[in-house]
Amino acid sequence: MRRIPTRYAVIAFVAVLAVLGGTLGVTYFGSSPSAKDRIEAAPPPALFPQAAIVATERSVVGQSPRAHELIATWFDAHGRNRDDKAFATWLEQQVPPPPAKSARAAELTAVDQVSRTRDKAGVTAATWLEAYGKKDLWKLYAHDQAELLPAAEGTVRKDDVKAMLKLSKTVADALGTRYQQSAPYVLNPSLRPDHTVTKGQVCPCSYPSRHAAAGAAATTYLAGLDPERRSQYEWTEAQIDWSRVYMAGHVPSDLTAGALLGDLIGEYYLGTRA
After folding, report:
1. Could you give phi then psi for residue 185, rounded to 5 degrees?
2. Which of 19, 68, 209, 245 is the least buried, fewest Cβ under 10 Å from its Cβ?
3. Which long-range contacts (CB under 8 A, 24 or more apart) does 95-104 make?
4. What is the distance between the alpha carbons of residues 181 and 76, in angstroms, rounded to a whole number?
5. Using one digit for the tens of pLDDT, what is the confidence trace for 187-210?
6. CA–CA distance, 9 with 232 (Å, rounded to integer)
7. H helices within the chain, ranges in order?
8. Bridge partner list, 205
């Protein structure tokens, strides 16, 4: 599928926001302000160029084949019936342990090198993506799809995305607590002078990435239901994930582990809901 050029994707995304109008609000998200309201109040700045995110996109999208293999074993054992509690337990067993210390040390060195290339535009983009990329963007994309569906079906789709985002956070948090991999800026506070790191602090724990898990879950599910927009979702996923390395919140293996986790969640929801 032909990729949407970055500049056109951003323009199209902002245009969608403008067209949505006031219909989302409290109707779906049940809170004020809604995800749409928050993004409309703080529209996206210029995001990262394609050249900056291409390697990240390749690595996170590359987790999909492994996820497809793993989820097949779940469906072979459980069929297509919902068993969300058992699935969450199973999920924790599918994400591999963090890489060896030497490999992670090399990744930390690479993150340090990336931090030296930061500029004002990049920090602005990364800050926006960090704020809105964990939930709000994906909820907005779900709403965008639901606008073209019968009301009841659209509500189910939005509810599925909301539930997946919650599940991805729950499992990523559990694994983070288990593995205790400190975020790069915790290990080297100079990478994020805007954060306060206390002596002996271990977390925020970065393995696996919650942003990556949320993005992969939403991308897999939404693209499975609307393949024509896959490139847009994957581009957004890569933008968000790269921003986390750019601002020293994660190393690349945190992202790939999160993407594997999220892909499994998206596949599960496609198989048991859609």
Report:
1. -70, -20
2. 19
3. 95/171, 95/175, 95/208, 95/257, 95/260, 95/261, 96/257, 97/179, 98/179, 98/181, 98/207, 98/253, 98/257, 99/253, 103/253, 104/181, 104/251, 104/253
4. 33
5. 999 999 999 999 999 999 999 999
6. 7
7. 6-20, 25-29, 35-41, 50-61, 64-78, 84-94, 101-115, 120-132, 136-146, 151-179, 184-187, 210-225, 230-246, 252-272
8. 182
Q: Which of 49, 36, 45, 35 is nearest to 235 (CA)?
A: 49
HEC-encoded secondary structure of 96-111: CCCCCHHHHHHHHHHH
Extract the tokens encoding 110.
Answer: 């690479």
Angstrom distance (rounded) from CA 231 to CA 237: 10
Is residue 168 within 8 Å of 87, Cβ to Cβ? no
pTM of the model: 0.88
Alpha-carbon distance of 176 to 173, in angstroms, equals 5
N- to C-terminal Cα separation, the chain: 23
Q: Is 123's pLDDT higher than 80?
A: yes
Give Cβ neighbours of residue 235 (< 8 Å, ≥ 6 apart): 3, 4, 6, 9, 53, 57
Q: What is the pLDDT of residue 229?
A: 97
Residue 182, beta-bridge partner list? 205
Interval 213-243: pLDDT, tens: 999 999 999 999 999 999 999 999 999 999 9
